[in-house]
Write a structure and sequence with these properties.
By secondary structure, this protein is α/β, with parallel strands linked by helices. It has 5 helices and 9 strands. A 3-stranded parallel beta sheet has the order 1-2-3, with helices on both faces. The chain has a 3-stranded antiparallel beta sheet with strand order 4-5-6, with helices on one face. It is elongated and about 70 Å long. The mean pLDDT is 92.
Length: 161
C-alpha cells in the first residue's frame, strides 16, 4: 500500500483525508513546527531536514504495518481482520488456517478437508456446510470466502469492503 508523504502542518486536510481512508502516512514536520501526537500505527513523522535513508526507512516501516493490518490472522480460535475479530469453532479454525495462510489464493477442497479432519474425512457435503457457517461468521469482518469452481475456495477482503 502506498504511503502518503504529507507536509506538516501545511497539509492538515490531506492528513485527515488519508487517515479517514485508513492510508498509511508519513508527516514531514517543518523545522519550527511542533509534531502532532501520533497514536495510529499507520502514521509516523520525521523532522526536516531528514536524510533520505531515514525517510525511506520510515516509509518501509509504514508499508509493512499497512500490509500486516490488511491480512487476517487466526490465533487460539480467534480470527482477526482490520481491527475486528470473531470466535471460531475448532473445525472452523482448522478450515480457516489454510485459507488465512494463502490469503487471496485458491485453496483446494482436499487441502481444507485434510486440515479440518486429518484422521477421518467426512462425507462430501460436510465441508460445504462448515464453509457456509464460516462465511456467515466472517461477513461482519469484511472478509469473504469465494468459490472457485472445480478448484476450491479463496479467502479475500470483501469486495467494496
Amino acid at each position: 500500500m502506498e504511503v502518503a508523504v504529507i507536509r506538516w502542518p501545511e497539509d492538515e486536510s490531506r492528513r485527515a483525508r488519508a487517515r479517514q481512508a485508513n492510508k498509511p502516512r508519513l508527516l514531514l514536520v517543518g523545522t519550527h513546527a511542533d509534531p502532532p501526537a501520533v497514536a495510529d500505527p499507520l502514521e509516523d513523522w520525521v523532522r526536516l531536514p531528514a536524510a533520505d535513508g531515514d525517510v525511506r526507512a520510515r516509509v518501509m516501516t509504514l508499508e509493512a504495518r499497512a500490509a500486516a493490518a490488511t491480512r487476517p490472522t487466526v490465533v487460539d480460535g480467534v480470527l482477526r481482520f482490520a481491527g475486528a475479530w470473531v470466535g471460531l469453532s475448532p473445525v472452523e479454525e482448522r478450515i480457516a488456517w489454510p485459507l488465512v495462510e494463502r490469503f487471496g489464493a485458491v485453496v483446494g477442497r482436499d487441502a481444507l478437508i485434510r486440515s479440518a479432519w486429518p484422521a477421518d474425512p467426512p462425507k462430501r457435503n460436510a465441508l460445504d456446510v462448515h464453509v457456509l457457517r464460516l462465511r456467515r461468521r466472517i461477513d461482519d469482518l469484511g472478509l469473504e470466502i469465494r468459490t472457485v469452481r472445480a478448484r476450491g475456495y479463496v479467502l479475500q477482503a470483501a469486495l467494496g469492503g
